[in-house]
Automatic annotation (TrEMBL):
Listed SMART domains: DEXDc
Keyword presence, Disulfide bond: no
Gene Ontology molecular function terms on file: ATP binding; helicase activity; hydrolase activity; metal ion binding; nuclease activity; nucleic acid binding
Organism whose genome encodes this protein: Novibacillus thermophilus
CDD domains recorded: Cas3''_I
InterPro entries given in the database record: Cas3-like_dom, CRISPR-assoc_Cas3_HD, CRISPR-assoc_Cas3_HD_sf, DEAD/DEAH_box_helicase_dom, Helicase_ATP-bd, Helicase_Cas3_CRISPR-ass_core, P-loop_NTPase
HD Cas3-type domain ranges (all copies): 14-217
UniProt xrefs under Gene3D superfamilies: 1.10.3210.30, P-loop containing nucleotide triphosphate hydrolases
Protein name: HD Cas3-type domain-containing protein
Length: 806
């Protein structure tokens, strides 16, 4: 028994409207290819026509019509992949293809087969020795389909298929011979076309992205959201007014810096206009010189003059991202979508269409993290390729790209260059410490060519004598009595916790009145947010109150805070420059100071090596610092270029680029594993019910950023009928309750949970987790008493190797 293809549906009726399967197949085919034209477009069209052909099976039609959750899902992608390969193989012998075109055709067929197989799940490798569907396909199952109707449907667009027999037996016989064909095609492609110099071009998953975008958008009845030229013009006008207003409102002490910011905005825009046809640009300005607003003005100029459709801003940390998102909204008046792991706990309602639009970056401005960008360039699942669709004709702003780890840097640049060409994208690298971009074949155009001239805001002092915890505490406590606003930045959570305790003890002994705030990675995201807001409020206080912040490097990039002096444990040169960017940012009063010192835990252990593991980075940093003991700001920043030149001259790119070559041969999982930041051992996600008092704090006492976070959490707790933070975890453990959540609700609930999760090493978790050996992936802290309002779980760090967590 079969259901006629004409009567098959692609999804359940909605609002009295039905969704015929044949309409869905044709629409997707049209969106990713064309029935007329070159072979590549026709092949893409065929892939679209057959990607969901498996939904014509009787069992799938019964499943979708009943929507009985007890029946489970019914696979369909494998049948579309087999039928596509069956038709494409037949066409390969009937299309007029040159030898070179035939080889490209064969590889394209193999990739489309893999895309159709994977279009609802993980992206897998192309194996030379086995067909993608082996073990998942049985030809007899095709007997559930209206094969005659499917053939008529295809013949409308492919007359070459008139003589192809559509039957279970013919497909079964074909499959036996196609195993040899598959191996031959694979070997032909690898031998002739998988060259290292073009590997990245063949790795960008643009065809996968086209298929996923067309499939998802048609199923959800969504239209793309692009920025019009008139919107861009209006936003550019508003941005100019915003920048002017900020300059006029600046205090007299900040006037010189404000004037410089506007000057270099004009310089950057004019330089962009002269080189508007280029793909890659750099914006290298000192911290505090308004890099974000300058980059935004350049990006909007590209949208106005080159008809770019959106701006995608990428930052390494959520603290930078939240701050930038709010400012971009205020500055432009445009719709800004923020996409990261905590997005779903934002103060707004979500449905499946909203989530699809967000994950495909369909907004005039999108703000996201490097983790999300990497998932677009190096996707592990089909859904993640939607980000590539969002990058088409976009302006990509990469803030602080030097944060990307060395092993990922060269593959990232190669894939970025290939994507920029294929997607008609322009890329702007933004940093005060610009790393070399020599892996890009064309030298990026600098938007500010000369060194920026301005009054120095700080000096850098290099102290070569190692300091232990008590030494650091002595120095910073003495300093805070003079400068009032001082920070000390350590390399690991354990180091920061030890110094924090020493500082507290020293303040008590000296009877020195100063507020001490601890910032570290062993806190929940909510707790970090609250602590950073505390720091900002204290720094904005004009009274004589003293503030001493003990932190890990989480404050070094993008957090708009400014101290009179910062003590920094020796790290690597770009990190030191970022730390200096937290000093006297607006050039007020006398110069501040960055004091760099070697730190030895307990006077013995150099923990710098635990975090900055690349020896050559450490060696070149030491070589730079040994040049002189005291640096003016300009000298210090200019040394970055020399540091990077030496580092990248010594780096070996071949090993990291081998991943790209392997992926070009079909071993996609080699690239799918790539991440922007180094993973540092086994982590356990621990739920900590901290924040009940924050949720009941009077709004009048909160900043605008705190209000948004508070309302977002409160709304979700109300939506899920959760009365307390403690009860969030109880919901998580209720498997029956979790099962009945929709896709959207599950994302929202997990976004809510993320606000209360701390990732810690397994050994540390053993001492604070109640259910470490139980089934739940997310564990629960034994008692809230184990968690400190001041330091989170930092005081527990130290049992595992090196206490690395930031």
């Amino acid at each position: 028994m079969v259901i006629r293809l004409e009567d098959c549906i692609a999804r359940p009726p909605e609002g009295g409207r039905t969704f015929p399967l044949s309409d869905h197949l044709f629409t997707v085919g049209q969106r990713i290819g064309a029935p007329e034209g070159e072979w590549a477009e026709r092949l893409a069209f065929l892939a679209g026509l057959l990607h969901d052909a498996g939904k014509a099976r009787l069992s799938w039609q019964q499943y979708i019509r009943s929507r009985d959750p007890d029946k489970g899902s019914v696979p369909h992608a494998v049948y579309g992949a087999v039928l596509f390969a069956y038709c494409a193989d037949y066409l390969s012998r009937r299309l007029p293809l040159s030898a070179d075109a035939a080889s490209h055709y064969q590889w394209s067929v193999m990739r489309w087969v893999r895309d159709i197989m994977d279009h609802h799940g993980p992206l897998k490798d192309i194996d030379e020795t086995s067909l993608p569907w082996e073990g998942h396909f049985f030809a007899e199952d095709l007997g559930e389909m209206d094969l005659a109707g499917l053939q008529r449907f295809l013949q409308t667009h492919f007359t070459e298929l008139d003589d192809l027999e559509f039957s279970v037996q013919h497909v079964k016989t074909w499959q036996k011979g196609f195993r040899r064909t598959w191996r031959t095609w694979y070997r032909t492609h690898v031998r002739r076309h998988a060259k290292r110099e073009t590997a990245a071009d063949r790795c960008v998953r643009t065809s996968t992205a086209r298929l996923i975008e067309a499939d998802r958008f048609d199923a959800a009845l969504l239209e793309k959201r692009e920025m019009s030229r008139s919107e861009a013009l209006k936003a550019l006008d508003q941005l100019n007014e915003y920048v002017t207003h900020r300059a006029v409102s600046a205090s007299p002490a900040q006037t010189d810096v404000s004037t410089l910011r506007q000057t270099y905005q004009d310089v950057a825009v004019n330089q962009f206009k002269k080189h508007a046809s280029e793909r890659f640009f750099t914006l290298s300005l000192p911290t505090g010189m308004g890099k974000t607003m300058t980059a935004l003005k350049v990006a909007l100029t590209a949208c106005v003059e080159l008809d770019k459709q959106r701006i995608v801003y990428v930052a390494p940390y959520l603290s930078i991202l939240s701050q930038a998102t709010a400012e971009l909204r205020r500055a432009t008046g445009l719709e800004v979508h923020q996409h990261h792991s905590l997005t779903w706990s934002e103060h707004r309602e979500w449905d499946e269409k909203d989530i699809l639009l967000l994950e495909s970056w369909q907004a005039p401005i999108v703000t996201t993290t490097f983790n999300q960008l990497f998932r677009g360039l190096f996707p592990s699942r089909a859904q993640e390729t939607l980000r590539l669709a969002g990058l088409r004709r976009a302006v990509l702003l990469l803030d602080e790209p030097q944060i990307i780890r060395e092993a990922a840097w060269f593959p990232f640049l190669k894939m970025l260059e290939a994507a920029a060409c294929q997607l008609d994208m322009q890329v702007l690298f933004i940093s005060a410490t610009m790393p070399p971009l020599n892996a890009i074949s064309c030298r990026p155009t600098p938007l500010v060519e000369e060194h920026v001239v301005y009054a120095p805001r700080y000096d850098v002092l290099h102290h070569g004598t190692p300091c232990a915890e008590a030494d650091v505490a002595d120095r910073v406590v003495n300093r805070v009595t003079k400068d009032r606003q001082v920070a000390v930045v350590l390399n690991t959570v354990e180091d920061s916790s030890r110094v924090y305790r020493e500082v507290k003890n020293r303040l008590a002994l000296d009877e020195c009145e100063a507020e001490v705030i601890h910032l570290n990675g062993a806190m929940t995201p909510l707790h970090k947010h609250v602590q950073i807001q505390r720091v900002k409020k204290r720094l904005a206080d004009d009274s004589d109150n003293r503030l001493l912040v003990v932190s890990t490097q989480m404050i070094e990039a993008g957090v708009d805070i400014s101290f009179r002096a910062v003590y920094r444990a020796l790290s690597i040169f770009p990190s030191l420059v970022q730390a200096a960017g937290r000093i006297n940012r607006h050039g007020q009063g006398d110069r501040g100071e960055l004091i760099v010192f070697p730190f030895l835990r307990n006077g013995e252990k150099d923990t710098r090596r635990s975090v900055y593991r690349e020896r050559l980075f450490r060696e070149e940093t030491d070589k730079s610092l040994d040049l002189q003991k005291r640096w003016a700001e300009h000298e210090f920043i200019r040394e970055v270029d020399r540091y990077y030149a030496r580092v990248f001259q010594r780096m070996q790119a071949e090993a990291s680029l081998k991943r790209v070559s392997d992926a070009a041969r079909g071993n996609w999982t080699e690239l799918a594993q790539l991440t922007p930041f180094e993973e540092d051992g086994q982590r356990v996600s621990v739920f900590v019910p901290w924040g009940e008092s924050f949720l009941h704090t009077d709004e009048a006492l909160l900043s605008e950023e705190e209000k948004a976070v508070q309302k977002g959490i409160q709304r979700l707790m109300e939506q899920f009928a959760i009365q307390s933070v403690e009860a969030i975890y109880e919901r998580y453990l209720d498997s029956a309750w979790m099962t009945q959540l929709t896709f959207v609700e599950r994302k929202q609930f997990m976004g809510l949970m993320q606000q209360f999760i701390v990732p810690i090493h397994y050994k540390t978790a053993a001492g604070v987790v109640a259910n470490l050996r139980d089934d739940p992936t997310i564990k629960r802290i034994t008692s809230l008493e184990e968690y400190s309002d001041e330091s989170g779980l930092a005081h527990h760090i130290g049992n595992e190797e090196d206490g690395i967590l930031w």
